[in-house]
Amino acid sequence: MVSTSRNAVLSFAVVAALAAAQPASAEVFTIGDSFTVSGGNSPDSFSQSVPFQTGTVSLDGGALNLTISIVPLGDAAQNEWVVFQYQTANGDPLSLSNLSWHLDQIGLPAAVPVNFVGDFTQFTDANGTPFDQTISIFGQGLMGNPVPGGAGNGEGTLGYAAPFPAGPLPDLGAFANPFGFVTNALGTTDVYGFTQALEFAPQTPITPPSGAPEPLTFSLFAAGLAGLGVARRRKA
User: Fold this and answer.
1) CB neighbours (10 Å) of residue 203?
2) Is 220 a member of any domain?
3) 186 is in which domain, residue-wise?
4) pTM of the complete model
5) Nearest CA to 122 among 85, 68, 95, 76?
6) Which of 96, 97, 115, 155 has the greatest number of CB atoms lying within 10 Å of its CB?
């Protein structure tokens, strides 16, 4: 378990839903399937179905943009980072210091049984530039961005070995109650974005169907990344 503050927690629920569907291609996740993004005071509260695919979608009635990137590492274990980059769209801060804040990804569509092996988190300014974080928010170690193409520093943990079956993954996210735990650590209330990067690997290496192209390596956006750890989210 990751050591965390009582009121600023990275969440990783310990029970995953099972699914019987078999993957149609050599993908760790089923591209195009839906998952749910849930936000609390980020900058509003919402729950929205989102397709799992690279690109940018609008959330919370246009108040928040989410950019999803997939960054395969090209190693024998077929590890890949899934990056969720949130940035406010209307000039409002991500949240206010006195409010309870959370962002969660619920039901990411694993195409095969996977191991959750790493996470990394960052917060960003109005330009999408990651803050130079020097104080841990979620009780994890400070580190440079471990995602190829990423920049800046944040906090995270590498080397998990948490197995999950194919199908919707459990609730993955972060919360701070109040958001002041974040702003105090960063030394500013001008926080406009949050990115989390989650590293996964198939439990058994997968082989592309005959004649199928290898998955592309998607470029990572210049803004900082963020990720998530392994503590069940506590309700405020």
Assistant:
1) 16
2) no
3) 8-13+29-202
4) 0.81
5) 85
6) 155
